[in-house]
Design goal:
The complex is a heterodimer. By secondary structure, chain A is an all-alpha fold. In chain A, 65% of the residues lie in helices and 0% in strands. Classes of the chains: A mainly alpha, B mainly alpha.
């Protein structure tokens, strides 16, 4: 396999995590906006979850590369 | 008036997705040197990637939107499409059929039929499959554009051209590998985009027990017993006791056996992913790995539909949209749920996930069409004996005109809805008997080419005839059946008619293939059939793999888990 698919996946979700989490932080005082999501700042929390997933993918890709090199 | 308002963050999220999808195609471009690279990913895909692509290609629009709609309409009985109608077939193809698909080195499912039977059987399958893929990707493009028009106020032409254009570029650049890699990306996006919906929805309902309570009210209001929406098997003794209008035997045989095995074991759209795997044991593991997420999808796609109908009831019929005649438009259940629970930001992710599901399904159709057209139609009947370079060129070219044809089909769907329904019906007739042909082909060496071809033909005719002579309850003769003017049997629901059409088609094909095979001369010798038929192929010995990589062990675990799920939601 020439391109490790985990790299683009990891990158994309890391970016999504930062974006969504950051947006959640900025909008955290906006109670009206989070009325939809039962008062939970879902952008912040789910952003963190996506970030964690993205980073794990990137770490796996890095570790997977070593034995071949 | 659009029902969902997007903020700028949502557009940024959608744009990032497009950039990555196209970027993957771009990065793979330089590896597309031969036909094998373009059409078969150079048979180099590791099992876990092939497995996730296998499931993602199936996780198209019909799945996310359609299963959500069924969840609202029928409740948890929809899970039969997973725990009965998918898992057993996926285990079967992995353990019993993959050795012949992968071992024969066939490049497509129709090509297997050519090797095993003869040219006409291949031609029949290749042509009907190619036509079907073009139409189904056209129809799903139409559904996407229609939905985005309704929800977001996007221009119909813009949505069609955008989704077609992006899929075109990434497949043109990176072939099957690009489709597969993107399917893996899309898989994670769909899961991670819908998961918060399930979490918020369930929390809002007061957990599973709260949802059960609310759905009990929905059930009684519709004239069924309490629990009809939340118990998958208990209301299946009679078709009048459940909203699907099916009883357990028709469901298990029609859906669980004929339709499910016919789809998962013979449809090149999914089988192509396993054929691209990097070894025989990876190919066998592909559908088994895919079965694990498949088994859990009901939580992701059916549950939001169930929550939507509970909300509809709670809001006294004010949640789901109604069409002119006042009946609920169930297809909007899941997208509306996104708008209901997601704030700007996460909403972008949810819609991107929806977009991803359309694209993965469409790309699956396009890559399968490319291969079948180029190898099974073009190379076989139009221009044989050309260089690999020529066929690679044809693959690129086919990506363009194949997608062009799908776009045309999407527009045809806006004008002639009936023709589209009719075409889908015809394809259903062609597909229903197919599994009988493959089963006999792989496990009975006496089955002949004439037997297979005329068996398939009689199965297809039997399906059409059965449909023509029966009618579901409350339907007028026409597209729903009964079009020969005689109504021999009335089914309690369209789904019941559908299941029985499949059962009859399969049985007729099975019997006809055996009878005709015994009457005709066997043209293939045992050595011709080596690698194609069970009894003349040396047993494939799995290399020494750890237990979690052994197909048989994996298959057993998957079946056990599916059984447990059926029991929990009994």
């Amino acid at each position: 396999m020439q391109v490790d698919v985990r790299i683009p996946i990891g990158l994309m979700f890391t970016i999504y995590g930062l974006l969504l989490g950051g947006y959640g932080l900025v909008t955290s005082s906006n109670a009206d906006m989070y009325r939809h999501s039962l008062g939970i700042n879902i952008n912040l929390w789910w952003g963190l979850a996506l970030l964690a997933f993205g980073v794990v993918m990137l770490v796996l890709a890095r570790r997977g590369k070593k034995p071949q090199a | 008036m659009p029902k969902i308002q997007l903020g700028y963050v949502d557009y940024v999220i959608l744009t990032i997705y497009f950039v990555f999808v196209l970027g993957i195609g771009w990065a793979l471009k330089r590896y597309m040197k031969t036909g094998t690279d373009f059409f078969l990913s150079g048979r180099s895909i590791p099992a876990w990637i092939a497995g996730l692509a296998f499931i993602s290609a199936n996780l198209g629009a019909q799945e996310v939107i359609g299963m959500g709609a069924s969840g609202a309409k029928y409740g948890i009985m929809t899970s039969h499409f997973y725990w009965v109608g998918a898992i057993p077939a996926m285990v079967f193809i992995g353990i019993f059929m993959m050795p012949f698909y992968y071992g024969s080195r066939a490049r497509s499912v129709p090509e297997y039929l050519k090797l095993r039977f003869d040219e006409k059987t291949r031609g029949f399958n290749a042509i009907s499959f190619a036509a079907m893929t073009v139409f189904s990707s056209g129809i799903s493009m139409y559904a996407l554009a229609k939905m985005f028009e309704l929800l977001l106020g996007w221009n119909f032409h813009f949505s069609v051209l955008l989704s077609a254009g992006i899929v075109l570029i990434y497949i043109f650049l990176g072939g099957l590998t690009s489709a597969i890699y993107n399917e893996v990306l899309q898989f994670f996006l769909i899961v991670l985009g819908f998961l918060p919906l399930v979490f918020l929805g369930l929390k809002d309902m007061g957990g599973w027990s709260g949802l059960v309570e609310k759905l009990n009210l929905v059930a009684t209001k519709n004239g069924f017993a309490e629990g009809t929406w939340t118990q998958s098997w208990q209301h299946m003794t009679s078709p009048t006791a459940n909203p699907m209008g099916v009883e357990w035997f028709g469901m298990v045989m029609g859906l669980g056996f004929v339709l499910s095995f016919g789809y998962w074991c013979t449809d090149f759209l999914v089988v192509q992913r396993a054929m691209a795997a990097n070894s025989m044991s990876a190919a066998r593991r592909t559908p088994l790995i895919a079965a694990v997420p498949k088994m859990l999808f009901p939580a992701l796609v059916i549950l939001p539909g169930m929550i939507a109908i509970a909300l509809e009831h709670q809001n006294a019929g004010g949640f789901l949209p109604k069409d002119a005649s006042g009946s609920i438009n169930y297809n909007l259940a899941v997208p509306l749920m996104l708008g209901h629970y997601f704030p700007t930001g996460l909403l972008g992710l949810g819609l991107t996930a929806l977009m991803a599901s359309f694209m993965s399904g469409m790309a699956g159709n396009v890559t399968a069409f490319n291969t079948v057209w180029t190898y099974d139609i073009y190379q076989s009947y139009i221009r044989p004996n050309q260089s690999d370079r020529h066929y690679l060129w044809m693959g690129h070219f086919t990506t363009i005109w194949g997608i062009g044809l799908s776009v045309a089909a999407a527009y045809a769907a806006t004008k002639f809805n009936n023709i589209m329904d009719m075409l889908q019906l015809v394809f259903a007739f062609v597909n229903a008997p197919l599994f009988a042909t493959f089963m006999l082909g792989m496990f009975w060496k006496r089955a002949t080419g004439h037997g297979a071809f005329f068996g398939l033909l009689s199965g297809t005719l039997a399906a059409a005839l059965h449909h023509a002579l029966t009618l579901p309850k409350d339907c007028v003769a026409g597209i729903k059946g009964g079009w020969l003017g005689v109504n021999l049997h009335q089914y309690p629901s369209e789904m019941a008619q559908n299941f029985w059409t499949a059962i009859i088609a399969w049985t007729v094909c099975f019997v006809a293939t055996i009878v005709i095979s015994l009457l005709t001369r066997q043209t293939k010798t045992d050595s011709d059939l080596k690698g194609l038929v069970y009894s003349v192929t040396p047993r494939f010995k799995e290399p020494d793999l750890p237990w979690h990589k052994q197909p048989a062990t994996l298959g057993f675990i998957v079946l056990l888990a599916a059984t447990v799920l059926n029991i929990i939601f009994w």
